[in-house]
Amino acid sequence: MNTVKQTDIYDKNERLILEDCTLCPRECRVNRFEAGTGYCGTDAGLNIALVCIHRGEEPVISGKEGICNIFFGGCNLHCIYCQNHEISRKDSVVRNVGNDLEEILDQIIKILSGGIPAVGFVSPSHVVPQVRAIIKGLNSRGYKPITVYNTNGYDKLETIRSLEDLIDVYLPDYKYITEHIASEYSEAPDYPEIALKAIKEMYYQKGSTLSIDQNGSADNGLLIRHLVLPGHAEESKRVLHSIAEELSPGVHLSLMSQYHPTTYVRQHPVLNRPLYKTEYESVVETMESLGFRNGWIQDMDSNVNYRPDFRKENPFE
């Protein structure tokens, strides 16, 4: 991988962090300006796999016109079932649309100028300086879109604290509450502890209220996502109990049924099949019994509707 020359998009502190990377809980301490040798496999460039209009799972995130999503390559979790594996894995082929910030800003602004109100940063935990650079670049050009931090939840507490003045809507996953499941599926036994701390900070900043504008788009707040995995309905119920007890049943939830087994888990004894309707419905029942009153559930055919193909110009259409 080529040495990254574009250092002027980062401030001094961010350059120091990237030279001895401790951005995410992995704390690989690699020099990102030299190569992508850390866990995420990304260097100090923008590492953007795709910029596109996305009409996603939650109506308040997509809005009427969609959201301008920036999909980053690489990831600080290696979930064995990842639906975005075409861009998230180290051996991914579809990875980078360019490292020139001005060109990326041009792409984003072209989409925003078409009436899209929000910019979403997808899988940003390992590229937070890049997120800052994009937001500052847009602001310098006179654009102040709604900013959505669409994260897997494996974020350092101090990182979330540092984003308070930049991020309007937090959209975190809360994947697991059991260490051995987090270890087996995402190589992160500390995920339950790390994710809960990060989400608690998001809740501290935003509270339970998800502010929605006159067009039906969320413009401030917190929305927690949870994907129900086959064979793990009880784990999902424990996650819901954690949210209700540690935060509030008043938070907004997106309870997803869209799991689809990729080629990487076709031989897995548990994850090699779609989610059963009975499994998902039992988790929905728990959500209702715990008093959750805000959020979204999915139809069982969502695993077909939301399956991306990153070889296409728009992977979701």
Structure description:
- The chain is of the alpha/beta class and 317 residues long.
- It has a single domain, classed as Alpha-Beta Barrel (TIM Barrel).
- Helix content is 32%, strand content 15%.
- The N terminus is likely disordered.
The proportion of strand residues reads: 15-25%
User: How many beta-strand elements?
Assistant: 9
- The multimeric state of the shown protein is single chain
The domain tally reads: 1
Low-pLDDT stretches are 1-5
Question: Given the structure, what is the number of helices?
Answer: 11
Within CATH, the superfamily carries the name Aldolase class I
Query: Can you write the helix and strand succession as a string?
Result: HEHEHHEHEHEHHEEHEHEH
What proportion of the residues is helical, as a percent range?
Answer: 25-40%
Arithmetic mean of pLDDT: 91
The CATH topology: TIM Barrel
Q: What structural class is derived from the secondary structure elements? A: alpha/beta
CATH architecture: Alpha-Beta Barrel
Approximate shape = globular
Radius of gyration in whole Å, from Cα? 19 Å
Largest sheet: 9 strands, mixed
The CATH first-level class comes to Alpha Beta
- The CA-CA distance between the termini, in Å, is 31 Å
